[in-house]
Amino acid sequence: MNLAAPFAVHVQILQQRLEAALQSQYLDGVVISAGIPHVYFADDMEAHFHPVPHFAHWCPQPGPHHFLVLQPGKKPKLVRWSPQDYWEEHVRPQDAYWCASFDILEVPDSRTGWQSLPTVGRWAYIGPETAIAQEWGFQVETSLLVSHLDWDRGIKTPYEVLCLEEATSLAAQGHLAAKAAFEAGGSEFEIHIAYLQAVQCRDVDLPYTPIVALNEKGAILHYMYKRTAPRNGQVLLLDAGAPHQGYGSDITRTYCTSAAPAEFQDILRGMEKIQQQTCQKVHAGVSFLELHHETHMAIGALLIETQLLRHCSVEEAVTSGKTTTFLPHGLGHMLGIQVHDVGGLQKNALGEPEKRSVQYPRLRTLRKLREGEIVTIEPGFYFIPMLLEKARAEDTTGQLNWPLIDKLRSCGGIRIEDNVHVMANGHRNLTREYLP
Question: What is the pTM of this model?
Answer without folding.
Answer: 0.95
